[in-house]
Q: What sequence folds into this?
């Protein structure tokens, strides 16, 4: 089975309470979660790296994710390859032993919402806080077929419009790069 394709857009949020009220008009709270991400890359490299994978530690479990762009022209659509890890500490020791280094550590506090109106694709709306950066809105659709990416992007953009997010607030830069540029390195 091939991995799902994540179509995602994020934006800076100046007033999280006002955004929360707008989100609640469209969606229902699914969960509130805090997790820690550790991004790994090759130890022999220097500086920021796009080739990396993530160990995400949730309360009670952990997951490894590697993302690959569906196409170079479309950085907002990534094929995700994921698997569960039963022992995050052992996995991190394994990573070090096989020539990987920590690129970035990131914490994320997320409130995830599911739209009341069921869209054509699985869709999640998140209001996030990233310590060291601030608050963000993320809207993510999941599709199975690259031919569905355009429709998923249109759906994500429609949600941004319904929430009143101006284009000037959209942030194309990955969190990892924003944190790296601030000196928050692994």
A:
């Amino acid at each position: 089975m091939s991995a799902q394709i994540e179509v995602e857009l994020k934006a800076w949020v100046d007033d999280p309470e006002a955004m929360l009220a707008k989100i609640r008009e469209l969606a229902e709270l699914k969960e509130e979660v805090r997790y820690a991400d550790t991004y790994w890359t090759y130890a022999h490299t220097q500086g920021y790296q796009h080739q990396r994978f993530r160990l995400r530690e949730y309360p009670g479990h952990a997951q490894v994710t590697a993302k690959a762009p569906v196409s170079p022209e479309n950085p907002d659509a990534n094929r995700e390859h994921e698997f569960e890890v039963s022992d995050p500490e052992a996995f991190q020791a394994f990573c070090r032993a096989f020539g990987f280094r920590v690129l970035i550590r990131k914490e994320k506090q997320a409130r995830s919402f599911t739209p009341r109106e069921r869209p054509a694709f699985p869709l999640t709306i998140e209001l996030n806080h990233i310590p060291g950066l601030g608050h963000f809105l993320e809207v993510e659709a999941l599709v199975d077929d690259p031919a569905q990416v355009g429709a998923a992007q249109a759906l994500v953009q429609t949600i941004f419009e319904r929430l009143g997010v101006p284009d000037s607030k959209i942030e194309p830069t990955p969190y990892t790069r924003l944190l790296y540029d601030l000196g928050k390195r692994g």
The chain is about 25% helix and 45% strand. The first helix runs from residue 16 to 26.
